[in-house]
């Protein structure tokens, strides 16, 4: 197509590519320095036990406070961090920061930390977690790790070793976005995990669509048989929540119950309503 539009057209196209490459390199360099520049921030989204909606903990979700571009979502920079190697430094920072925060909360709450497949390939993550538990005087029950199915696909020996390391530390492991990767069921057999997080794409139609309900019911059944806990992510309506309660889901997460919020806001809510979860829920909703 570019050929038909003449030589000038092609050159413009090529210049555009070079600009893009240069911009990407600039972005990578900024990303590598984001940690020491204090530009990264963890937000916390509440997790509630069903059916009573008692607060159980928070999932830590990273944001990049970019000086020019504003708040950048993890979907826009985590893949770049993984590609350019910055994920190791960023991942270590996330573990330390999330563990520091959970140390400020009531001891029966946990923090759930998302981990990149790249972090799972190295034993460094075990040292980082062990050190964070020691530094902040945490029980391993206060920390959970979320890995996606993609992490389990390759290097399965290294992944298995890291998972065994978590187990030895007493750290629970969840499979995130369950059902969206390849051979989800094979992973359940191969790796012992503590929790399945049912992906938002199934939750979105639950209670509306008989086949979505059937899939979720089947996942719940397998989880029950294997003594694996379940969390449904992305709950946005009371109808979805009700359907999930009926299907036997153990933990709920979603905008309906609380959006991701700053640690400051989570701290204020915990101080204001440590036991009054309904109030917490209402306030959590008026946040970001
Ligand atoms: P995830 O781990 O599956 O996290 C859930 C995502 O769904 C979050 O997006 C959350 O804000 C969003 N969400 C929660 N409830 C609802 C809802 O009711 N409706 C809708 N539409 N969305 C909801 P976020 O924070 O943009 O994170 C996106 C993904 O980026 C995460 O998906 C995770 O894979 C990755 N990520 C986030 N934080 C980290 C991190 O610290 N480390 C790593 N390696 N990855 C991270
Ligand atoms: Mg997650
Ligand atoms: Mg998820
Ligand atoms: Mg998801």
Automatic annotation (TrEMBL):
It comes from the Bacteria. Residues 24-274 form the EAL domain. This is EAL domain-containing protein. The chain holds residues 529 to 816 of 816 of the full protein.
């Amino acid at each position: 197509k570019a050929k038909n539009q003449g030589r000038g057209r092609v050159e413009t196209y090529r210049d555009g590519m070079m600009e893009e490459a240069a911009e990407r390199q600039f972005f990578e360099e900024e990303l590598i320095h984001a940690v020491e520049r204090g530009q990264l921030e963890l937000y916390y989204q509440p997790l509630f036990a069903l059916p009573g909606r008692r607060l159980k903990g928070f999932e830590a979700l990273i944001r990049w406070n970019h000086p020019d571009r504003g708040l950048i979502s993890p979907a826009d920079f985590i893949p770049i961090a993984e590609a350019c190697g910055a994920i190791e430094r960023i991942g270590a920072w996330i573990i330390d920061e999330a563990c520091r925060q959970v140390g400020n909360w009531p001891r029966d709450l946990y923090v759930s930390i998302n981990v990149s497949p790249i972090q799972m390939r190295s034993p460094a993550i075990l040292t980082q977690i062990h050190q964070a538990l020691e530094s902040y005087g945490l029980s391993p029950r206060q920390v959970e790790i979320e890995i996606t199915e993609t992490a389990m696909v390759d290097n399965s020996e290294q992944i298995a070793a890291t998972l065994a390391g978590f187990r030895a530390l007493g750290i629970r492991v969840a499979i995130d976005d369950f059902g969206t990767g390849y051979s989800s069921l094979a992973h359940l057999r191969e790796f012992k995990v503590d929790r399945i997080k049912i992906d938002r794409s199934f939750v979105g139609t639950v209670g509306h669509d008989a086949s979505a309900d059937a899939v979720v019911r089947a996942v719940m059944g397998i989880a029950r048989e294997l003594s694996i806990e379940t969390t449904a992510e992305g709950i946005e309506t009371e109808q979805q929540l009700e359907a999930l309660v009926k299907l036997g889901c153990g933990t709920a997460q979603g905008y309906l119950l609380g959006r991701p919020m700053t640690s400051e806001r989570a701290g204020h809510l915990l101080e204001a309503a440590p036991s009054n979860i309904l109030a917490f829920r209402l306030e959590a909703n008026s946040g970001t």
